[in-house]
Amino acid sequence: MKRLIFTIGGLLLGVALWVYFRQPDPPEIPAARVRRGAIVQLLTTNGKVEAVSSVAVFVRAPTLVRSVSVQEGDTVRRGESLAEVDTTAAREALARARAQLDAAKADQALVERGGTAVEMADLDAAISRASLDREAAEREVAALQRLVERRAAARSELLDQQQRLFRAQSQLTALERKRHAFLGPEDRDRIRARIQEAEIAVTQASGALRQTELLSPEDGVVYSLSLKAGGFYNPGAQAAQVGKLDTVRVRVLVDEPDLGRLEIGQPVRVTWDALPSSSWQGTVERLPSEIRMAGTRSVGEVLCTIDNPGRRLLPNVTVNVEIRTGESPNALTIPRDAVVQEGRQSFVLLVDEKGVVARRPVRLGLHDAGRVEVLEGLADNQVVLLPGDHALSPGQVVRPRIAA
Description:
6-stranded antiparallel barrel, rod-shaped, 3-stranded antiparallel β-sheet
């Protein structure tokens, strides 16, 4: 009996000692190996597209647009018409000015050479015929006006007949001036003054007619068009914008801490949400000349030049921008999550073959979305710990669980 008691007591003592001195299993911690691979460091932001060369076309005189000759996206040549406009008033003013000039020059010729009896008789007959033509034209205009009011005739017919009346009146006025010149020669200085005034009137009327034109100021693409058929536009209204779109510029805002990574000539890749399967390539063209505030951000404005084959990238759209600020084809890398930052010092928790944790300072280089380059402090194939639920300290023993 005593032997049994001693045996049971020994077993209980052994179990107690085993429980007391048993060491817990080391915790399992996620980890990763140091490995080599390519690192491409990108600065991602967004920007707005603009034409490298762009000219706005403005309305220069009160203008009624009859029809629009181009559409947005059309390629145009310098001097090409963008729209057909109503120039009736401007052309009539020019015709009147030219008639006045012709009459003044005719009077000058008569004064200088005088007139014969035959010429005077011919002139009287011509005046009589011109008077009859004018009266006939007046009657026709009056009749057509009534028909147009009743919508029984086209307005274009009325305009044609009004032009005929205007020509008949101009011819009669010129003939009567010639007849008056025969009757009494005018002073030569007065004739010259009339000619000068008429020449100025012709120049002004010609300029006013040109002011009604809406022409492309340069070769390029119409990327903004405000004209509509039947629309009336006052001077100063913007009619269109024409620019060269084979190459465009993208204007981006970069946060101040990232500006030190940028250099002129760095590769740029642009995407546009409206064309998700397309991308465009370019380079950094200009770095900021100043830092300014954009809301709560301290930023610099960076200009990028982008090739635009097919001219599908349009001005004023917002695009996604990737600037390649660095590249290392065979870098020693670890996951970015493995780096612990304390002030300016970076370190990792390194695990040796026995699972013992050590704190190791590292010097870092380039980084991408998931990994960072290690310039100093680690060697290829070493194991570093990743963040987890356990608080770790140097000297602790762990079981690293290395991700595939």
